[in-house]
UniProtKB/TrEMBL annotation:
PANTHER family: CARNITINE O-ACYLTRANSFERASE, CARNITINE O-PALMITOYLTRANSFERASE 2, MITOCHONDRIAL. One of its GO terms (molecular function) is carnitine O-palmitoyltransferase activity. Transmembrane segments: none annotated. This is Choline/carnitine acyltransferase domain-containing protein. Belongs to the carnitine/choline acetyltransferase family. GO terms for biological process: fatty acid beta-oxidation. It comes from Lygus hesperus.
């Protein structure tokens, strides 16, 4: 599905996450934080390659299984039967096959269907600054991480290097339509750029050093920087890019075909913890006497007039696209997860209900809604669609809209019933009992053999899969911001977060087609209504 889609990656597919700042303010310089995050990323990679990172586990009874005792027992069992030990604790190991493509992976544009490229081992990352590329060696000949002062010295060399913005930033081409980029890349290879492109493709990951000085309070501008920016200092094809600005605000923009947010979030959380609790460079750290030239190589492209025209066209198109995108963000501070749980109502259900209420307030009708559910309980599982707009959720929206005569207690009971149904749908989707991926597979097979059943061309089926509200959450205490673009031109992309005492949402939309500010205002009003109902 992903590799065949010809739409550009940024906004349409690549999501982003932004870290909260290091709690030690003096560590939030671009140079210090970049060095520490690189080293923590390499530690994570080496632990992953050595099968040493703790497995992902779904705990059916967390009080029983999410414990040190459980980890000790299962860790002592042979790997061939450790899953059975976990099963006895009602804990289920999840598939982690996506992690193999987290590092050393790129999506390469090809006509009609892209290629996911992966190499087993390289010893370098790529670094982008002002649209220019550098190859930075970070592992020695034995695969060990270079000492921190050397990596620190090399990054300082790159940051201190006098340079202007790249006049013809090649990275902008990764923002293009995939067929257009495939043709442009083919031409680049034909004029002598194959080696430099292979170097970028094979890098462990891509580090982006941005010149902006945005602070963590400038939410809207930060969202734009990490979701799309101007595209000139980005390489959207890489499995992920670690992006760090002048003030040390760091985040990740990741390509989606190789894996889902659950794998990126694990990496994201682990490197935040490691880089803040075990930093390898500090304020006052000095450069060493290494020969920087042995570790840092400029990557230079040979461009002809045709390539330069392609770059200029891409810049103009991307500017037009990003200018048409609306971004709204709001944090609701009156309640969060704790209040929901006190009523035995799912916090996720409440958030989804609030989005339905908001859209109904704004437009007075209901629309197809998407919420992904991980199917990593199965080998190579990705996601199943969970559809939050149930009959019960719709009924609640109508009751709230008409200022229902139901008592407070009756409305809460209705919410509990709808919440239970929401929870059951999530469980069914996670256990492979959804219908969307099944029908999707049948449609692809029928198209392949040339016999397409009428259901797949029926307007109702097309409407069902036209997601006006595309929603997703990756809640974590170390995530400051996280979002993605709308999946259809007349839709909304809603990235939401649920904390103990507050709720947050980022809404993206195309301004000429939909009203993002109206939706976020209606969402605030809906949460106020829900808070009034539930507050103790």
């Amino acid at each position: 599905m992903y590799l065949c889609d010809r739409r550009p990656l940024p906004i349409n597919y690549n999501p982003f996450l932004v870290f909260i700042s290091d709690p030690k303010k003096e560590y939030n310089s671009q140079l210090i934080r970049s060095t520490n995050l690189i080293i923590s990323s390499l530690r994570f990679m080496k632990s992953l390659n050595a099968n040493l990172i703790e497995p992902e586990v779904y705990h059916l009874d967390p009080k029983k299984s999410d414990t040190k005792f459980f980890r000790t027992i299962t860790g002592a069992l042979p790997s061939s039967i450790s899953w059975y030990g976990a099963y006895l604790f009602k804990a289920f190991p999840l598939d982690m096959s996506q992690y193999q493509h987290l590092f050393n992976t790129s999506r390469i544009p090809k006509r009609d269907a892209d290629l996911l490229f992966h190499v087993d081992k390289t010893n370098y990352i790529t670094v982008m600054q002002r649209g220019k590329f550098f190859k930075l060696r970070v592992l020695d000949d034995n695969g060990n991480i270079l000492d921190a002062p050397t990596i620190f010295s090399c990054l300082k060399f790159i940051l201190d290097k006098p340079s202007t913005e790249e006049k013809h930033p090649i990275g902008i081409l990764t923002s293009e339509n995939r067929n257009v980029w495939a043709d442009a890349r083919g031409h680049l290879e034909s004029i002598g750029n194959s080696d430099v492109l292979k170097t970028i493709d094979g890098a462990i990951f891509n580090l982006v050093l941005d010149d902006n000085e945005l602070t963590e309070n400038e939410f809207t501008n930060l969202i734009r920087q990490y979701l799309h920016s101007d595209g000139k200092n980005r390489w959207f094809d890489k499995s992920f890019s670690l992006i760090i600005n002048k003030r040390g605000i760091a985040g990740v923009n990741f390509e989606h075909s190789w894996g889902d947010g659950i794998a990126v979030l694990r990496y994201f959380q682990d490197i935040y913890k490691d880089s803040t609790e075990n930093p390898q460079v500090h304020p006052g750290s000095k450069t060493n006497n290494c020969r920087v030239e042995d570790y840092v190589t400029d990557l230079v492209f040979n461009l002809d007039d045709k390539s330069k025209v392609s770059i200029e066209n891409a810049i103009q198109k991307f500017d037009s696209t990003t200018s048409s995108l609306g971004i709204e963000v709001h944090e609701f501070k009156h309640f969060g997860r704790n209040l929901c749980k006190s009523h035995k109502i799912s916090p996720d259900f409440l958030m989804q209900l609030s989005f339905q209420m908001a859209h109904y307030k704004l437009n007075n009708y209901f629309v197809s809604t998407y919420e992904p559910c991980s199917t990593s309980a199965f080998k190579h599982g990705r996601t199943e669609t969970m559809r939050p707009l149930t009959v019960e959720a719709k009924g609640l929206c109508v009751e709230f809209a008409k200022k229902s005569s139901h008592s407070k207690e009756e409305l809460i009971l209705m919410m509990k019933k709808a919440s239970d149904i929401h929870g059951n749908l999530i469980k069914e989707a996670a256990m492979g009992q959804g219908f969307d991926r099944h029908l999707f597979a049948l449609r692809l097979l029928s198209e392949k053999i040339g016999k397409v059943p009428a259901i797949f061309t029926h307007p109702s089926y097309k409407k069902l899969n036209h997601y006006i509200l595309s929603t997703s959450t990756l809640s974590s205490d170390v995530v400051l911001l996280g979002a993605f673009g709308p999946v259809v031109p007349d839709g909304f992309g809603i990235g939401y977060s649920i904390w103990a005492d507050r709720l947050g949402a980022i809404v993206s939309n195309y301004k000429e087609n939909t009203d993002g500010s109206g939706l976020i205002s209606c969402w605030q009003a809906s949460l106020n209504e829900l808070h009034e109902l539930l507050k103790l």
